[in-house]
Amino acid sequence: MTDKKTRKSKPEKKQEAESAPGNGEQAQVQEETQTVSAEAFAALEARLAEAESKSAEYLDGWQRARAEFMNYKNRIERDQALTAEMMRAQNIKKFLPVVDDLERALANRPAGTEAWVEGIELVYRKLLAVLDGEGVKRIEAVGQPFDPNLHEAISMEPVDGYESGQVIGVVQQGYTLGDRVIRPAVVRVAQ
Length: 191
Prior knowledge:
Strand content: 15-25%
Shape: elongated
Distance between the termini: 130 Å
């Protein structure tokens, strides 16, 4: 016969070795006889406790770093929103003198120019509609108590019919954008 037929493959030899009496029993006996002394067991427990404490420390550090990052991310988003709101307020503030000029023009109408006045009123209403659409609100001041957060007093005058500290007149309108005052109302206050 040829060599090829007589040779056994390695997996077949391994199976035969395991099935041979005594070989499997020896391996099983060796596994069972491995015991750990009390000192080695204590050392292993100490290493396990140390590893667990390091693991807890790393977990705590990771959680703190993650919380720090989330706080940083929230702060950046808040700062960006605030910056955008401030830029928006600055741009809107540039249009307020135009509103003031249109109000003065309408208050001092020249006689015999009704078509011109109607055109100015139309532009004025459109501008107010745009500002209202952006969230700009006029500060109502006349008859209200003076509030330094909303008003800027230019004079105090003794007036009948008003309590002391009450706004009696508006020199220049004030406006808010959301909760922020973009321009305080310039007012006269009763003494």
